[in-house]
Amino acid sequence: MPIENIIFYAFLGLTGLSALFILLSKNILYSAFALIATFIGMAGIFVLLGAEFVAITQILVYVGGILILMVFGIMLTNRLSQAKVETEVYNKFFGILISVGLFYILAKAIEMADFANMGWMKNAPSSPSSVRDLGMKIMTDYVLVFEVIGILLLLALIGAVRIAGNTREEGADAA
Amino acid sequence: MIDLNDIISTTEFNPLIYWIIALMAIPLLSFFTTTFLKKIAPIWGTLLLGVNLSISIYLASQYWDTTGVSIRGNWFSIGDTQLTYSFLIDQLALIMLVVVNFISVLVHFFSMEYMRHDENKPRYFGLLGLFTFSMLGIILFYDLLFIFIFWELVGLSSFLLIGFWFEKKSASLAANKAFIMNRIGDLGFITGLMILYSQFQTFDLEGIKSLTVLSSIEDGNWVAEYFKNGELVRNGLDGRWLSAAGIALFCGAVGKSAQFPLQVWLPDAMEGPTPVSALIHAATMVAAGVFMIARIFVILDAQALEVVAVVGAITAFMAAVAAFSQFDIKKVLAYSTISQLGYMVLAMGVGAYTAGLFHLVTHAMFKAGLFLSAGTIIHQLHQLEDKDINFDPQDMRVMGGLRKYMPVTFICFLICALALAGLPGFSGFLSKDAILLNTAVWIDEKGGGFYFIEVLAFATVLITAFYTFRMIFLVFTGDFRLPKLIPANTTLKPLQEGNIFLQLPMILLAIGSLSVIFGFTMKAENTWFYSLIQDPIFLVPESYAAFNLMDLPHEWFENLHFRVLAISIALALSGVVIAYFLFRPGAKFSASFVEQREPIGVIAQISFYHWYQNALYEKIILKFILWKVKRIAWFDRVILDGFINFIAKFQVVFAHLIAWFDRNIIDGFVHLTTYTTGRVGQLTRSVQSGNVQAYIMAALAFLILMLIWLLF
Amino acid sequence: MPLNTILLLGAALFCVGLAVVVTRKNAIAVLIGIELMLNAANLNLVAFSRFDAVEFQGQIFALFVITVAAAEAAVALAIVIKVYQHFQTANLDKINELKG
Q1: Using one digit for the tens of pLDDT, what is the confidence trace for B397-431?
Q2: What residue range is the signal peptide (chain B) (predicted)?
Q3: Contact flag A95-B697 (C-beta cutoff 8 Å)
Q4: B355 with B446, same domain?
Q5: pTM (2 d.p.)
Q6: Which pLDDT tens digit goes with each residue over B611-625?
Q7: Chain C CB within 8 Å of residue A74 CB
Q8: Among B550, B581, B611, where does a domain finish?
Q9: Do B489 and B620 reside in the same domain of the chain?
Q10: What distances in angstroms separate CA B660 from CA B233, B264, B651, B654, B672, one per listed residue?
Q11: With contacts defined as CB-CB under 8 Å, which chain A residues touch C44?
Q12: Comparing C-alpha atoms, which of B110, B69, B611 is closest to residue B320?
């Protein structure tokens, strides 16, 4: 087994196991940290799939941004005096049933699709992509989407600040 | 062939109708208004009746010479059946109008004094008005249905007036008795109406007469043929129905005119005020039966007339016998009235139409006069009563020698009594003589067993004179007996003559009882009454018709007349003489009279108890009816009520069943519906938990199901 | 690196994320689940992009998803904080104003 495969399955295992931990753990803080592990595993898989930029972005955005937000969120919505930041669990049976059912159907669909024998899959170029090419693409073909997504992000951030802002101030302004 | 519609067609407008309406409306107005007029009710009622009398006299003077004016109009129609009303103003109606109104006015006038102290005066005068209205209806209408209606109204007012002092048990019982006896007679009247209507399909007397004269007897059947609404009607009845119709109608007269066997109500009717007795139970209402026979006279056949004659003779004799031992002055007059009515009916029966009506008129005068005189005596005696002195002011045992105290009353009473006894110079003589003569002629023609009628009629003359003068001797001669009968330590107020209110009517009626009023003659045929009213010709088919007295040779009457005259005067005088010997002051009978509780001797007992007719009715008929009523009551209670109760119980059970079904099945169904709806609502509501995750699960579950369906 | 294995991993991650979303009461935990599900989608996109070296459609789409996810997370957390201030809880079973 080539070293590449071993690394792949290692990341795969990391991703899957940490995801399972999220599912099984009741502690939100632990879940958040397990999510980091999942993201890191996935970033590894992305690198192996030749998408280095996406992997970097993944780590930057998720680990560096979203997860910090999450932790802040946890802190703001739970009393710090509490020993454990735990969440209650309900809908266990139906939740698991639906998830397993959906996974079964998805797995069945993947199996039935038989991607390996598809034409475009066979004729796919084997050369790995480069970050340079990706950058070129973003700045040329996808520049409009890129700009729009930037504006969206800006708006979302402003909106988030506006929503979470102090209500009393708002009430005073209104008055 | 005659058309019924032509006979009973509406007549042209005649202003006379206004007078007729006025005649009937004025007494009715009196009836409706006197109740509201407390103090002036007597004067008001008397005035109204005075107006009515004036109208009657005016009409009489206007239509005296005409043969009769008839007014007819449509009353209402049901389908093809047309009911008409009709009036006939002929001499008979005019005479009756004047007589009734005259006596009514006098009675009103008399009552102003007689009822002065009665607090129910307004009701009394109102009822007199109602009576006069009803009586005038009988006289004016010429339609059997209307005559029947007013006949009943007369019965009603009689009932109300007899029971005027209804606080007295005897008065209310007497009123009931009068009403019931009248109803029995009216049953016959209705039967007669039905027979005539089924044959002729009209109640109009003109129509009935016109069709009767055209009807014929074919093979023992009474057949009437006529056109009605353009169609030929041919009604055939067994010939006996013709007699039956007459006898049935006569039954009505038997009730109203107090004929045997229904006459027992009239003596009891004396419970009413005396002026009422004078007006209703002597002069007018009881004469209405005779008047009604006169109206239907021409359609009576020989057999019916025989029944009428026999009943009249029996009544005249029985009542005369009953009169001669009574103590109560009003009872004597009541039996006397029945007896005289018997004479009138007898006259009708023997075909002496005019004589009967003549006696009706003369009797109305002298009997009203007698009653009003008796009323004066009773009224004046009543004044003597106070809390210590109690006696019956109608009892002749307390009277005696009143001639000295009440001379005017005595003279009036005497004149009227002479008329009643039928002595020459007084009106009763003329009319009674005419009846006796006609009876004698009829019996000569008829022969056979009918002689007993003549015997009864002449015997009645003797008895009438006897009881009349017995009354006069007992009341007016000798000494006043009352002071001896009262407790020793009390003193009587002096007995006085009645005042002008009481005297004037008496005097007028006494004058009306003189024969010179009707003509200066000894023979009834020579009076103006006979020249106005002639015996009519019978209209029934010839084989059924009675022979007409007018068709008999004139010599027959001439031969009989002197004999009848002589015999009747002789009998009347002997009655007076017997009365004188028995009841003159100081006579044996007169002396023991006061001590008698009831008459002594078999004949006197039979007389006093009126042939025990009341007892007979009570013992046999009443018992039988009570027995039958009890059986019927048992049937009612056990069978009918049982059946009805069973139905009711069944209904209740059935209702319970339905209620159970309603409650459990129907309500259950409704509840099920609402419950289901509610549960479905709850179910769908429960899905809307507000929990977003549940929504997600549901959406995903459906997504999975869809994918399963798509993929597999 | 067989494609099917990666796709199965993506499917598994998606299902785990779904289970987390459905079963957790805490709003932050639910957000974590949502992030998992978004990443599962990204994994698929990047995996297919491996066979499309010229156009990079998958990768670019994955980048956009990451961006939108970031925006989503920011807004969502803002809302959660606001909800917490209003209801004094972040438990979704208590926040059932929509209950019928």
Answers
A1: 888 888 888 899 999 999 999 999 988 889 989 89
A2: none
A3: yes
A4: yes
A5: 0.66
A6: 888 888 888 888 898
A7: yes
A8: B611
A9: no
A10: 62, 63, 14, 10, 17
A11: none
A12: B611
